[in-house]
Amino acid sequence: MTTGAGYWRLLAAAWSGLLLHSMVLASADSATPTRLRVEPDGQSEEVVVYGPDFFAVYNPVNARDMIDQLPGFQLVNGGGGRGFGGSAGNLLINGERPSSKQDRPSEILARIPVARVERIELIRGDTGSLSAGGQTVVANVVLRDSGPPSWTWTTELEQDTDSGGPEPGGSLSVLGTAGDTRYAAGIEARHFFFGNSATEGLTADQRLVELRDMTDASQGNEYAASLNTETRFGERVARFNAKLEYLGSGFRERSVGVRANPSISPFRVDRDQTRRDYELELGGDLQWQTDSQTDFKAIVVINRQWRDRAAGLRSEDPDEPVMRQRAVTDSRSAESIARLELDWFGWDRHYLEANLETALNVLDNQLALHVDSGDGFRPVLVPGGTARVEEWRSELQLTDSWQIDQWTLEPGLGSEFSQISQTGPGGQARSFFFFKPSLAVIHAPSNAHQTRINLRRDVAQLNFGDFVSATDFGDEEIDLGNPDLVPQNTWVAELAHERRFGRIGNATLRVFFNRISDLQDILPVTADQGVPGNIGDGRRWGIALETTLPMEPLGFRNARMDMDLRWQDSRVEDPVTGVDRPFSGESAFRVNTELRQELTAIQSAWGLSASYRDETIRYDVDELDIRSDGVDLELFIETTRFRRIKMRLEAENLLDRRFERDRRLFDISRIDPRPAFRELRDFRRGRSLILSLSGGF
């Protein structure tokens, strides 16, 4: 486990890396990106253009490979946010955001052959005229439409060195044009297996009373098919997106335990679960101009999910009757979104946008629990296990992007109205209104420097699963739902400064402060029972650093180091103890690094990636759940020298890191001075090797 001194060494290394920029300011290359000022539709913006020559050294196969090497840019996959506007990523295709939520940007990029990419534009600061959803740094992939259909393919084989395998997977996609329509389609399939082992000790009064050896295995199959089209009808553009996904899997856990008293016989606990998930999303938009200064876009997204679970628990103790439990959950969820966007740029140096969105979210959940205590299965009623939850929401947002020489001001004013209703025991209907202002200030005195200030109010998307009850056989508990949940909302303040240097050098330092109202956590309802709920107001603050550093000054030719580092702290009043504490489940420190070196003479590359984060603590009414995942280290080597096929070998979890869990349970609640007993689990996942091949034709 990394020590406190180790954290400071990592921080010092990151900060020292920033000093390297003075060593590379004079570096030049024929593939250096072009920095220019452009005037799209009368709106002045700074764009950093990366042409194919810049990416040639990385031997990319698809657009995802290119985006991964974009200096100072981290792809945001979007999805999971509130509505369509709230789930915006930071990727555009030909200046437009895909009209989908679940078809993630990384998957869309993987279906675009590198030969179809004309250039990638990195837009910094004023992104108002490019449908960027409020992002301040956006990548715009500009495609070529000429030529015959282009195909991309991947195959993958994973082998665990400690258990299971092999696990095959692959994908095939095509991108082409037919008349006035550009289309992209793809299919993918994967078989997966995860095998784990763990030891768990149970202590009471600091004495070991029970020891368990545990093994578990999960395996299943994933399939997906997608279709994207864009058709031009004169001045109008129509887009259509569809994606269908299926996941089927099974899980089994075997646990054999012995007690400290040798006169008590060993016991056994078996747990299993099967799942079947289907997801279908259809989306589309129609874009048109009424005049040279006004642009309209109408968007519709429909998503449906079907999720079925069957879980079982069997406890065998020679001194007790066999205990069996079975739980079957049928869950159906739906999201329907309609959105209208109006863009107007008839005012000099201004870009105005008005967005109107309405959405309906629905969850139908049915839970059936049966328990056999030795005399056959009998049904057990779980309060809140069967219920229907609906949320209807409407939102209006007005924004302006105002260019003033080296400054850009982006004020915004929005409001949201929603109504949430739930059937079943405790069901009710409630209404909410939120005022959502925002302000962004960007100062770019040169192409190499940029400072950004962001102030806004965010409203979080509720997890409808928190409204209904569920079984947790892993901890042998019932997790009750809460029909009184309200959306958490946050006032966000951020200050960031970006420095670019040389061909690939980039460093962005960001400080942030969040003021959270109605923070969602575990809310006590009895002395020893909690539910998901709103526990009051809290605050979070921290600092983040993102860098891309050339390694030539250290003797590594054609090498780069990418680092993403963040430290944060938070405070909220604990609803059990009344004492301030950090937010539940959030780590204070994390760091992700990757070293990559191109071996251009043999058209190959190798690299190392490492990640670490501090332990996390989850606070329940009568327990603390402390988890630590250790340090993850991975190695890869890849080449494209054989028929332009990319062959990549990855070695994952080289350190065989330990996933540790310290679960502390108290007699009544955490007010007690010390836990009644502790569960200490040492969990190992094992190493794995992944061989992948990818190419195009």
Apparent shape: globular
- Give the amount of beta strand, in percent: over 45%
Summarize the main sheet: 22 strands, antiparallel, barrel
Terminal CA distance: 47 Å
Multimeric state of these chains?
A: single chain
Unreliable sequence segments: 1-5, 14-32, 34-45
**CATH topology tier name of the domain at 31-144:** Ferric Hydroxamate Uptake Protein, Chain A, domain 1
CATH superfamily of the domain at 31-144: TonB-dependent receptor, plug domain
CATH C-level of the domain at 31-144: Mainly Beta
Named at the architecture level, the CATH assignment of the domain at 31-144 is Beta Complex
Number of contiguous helices: 5
Percentage of helical residues? under 10%
Task: Describe what you observe in this structure.
The protein has a domain at about 30-145: TonB-dependent receptor, plug domain (Ferric Hydroxamate Uptake Protein, Chain A, domain 1, Beta Complex). It is mainly beta and about 700 residues long. The longest helix is centred in the first third of the chain and has 15 residues, at about 5-20. The chain has a 22-stranded antiparallel beta barrel. The chain has a five-stranded mixed β-sheet with strand order 1-2-4-5-3. The protein contains five helices and 38 strands.
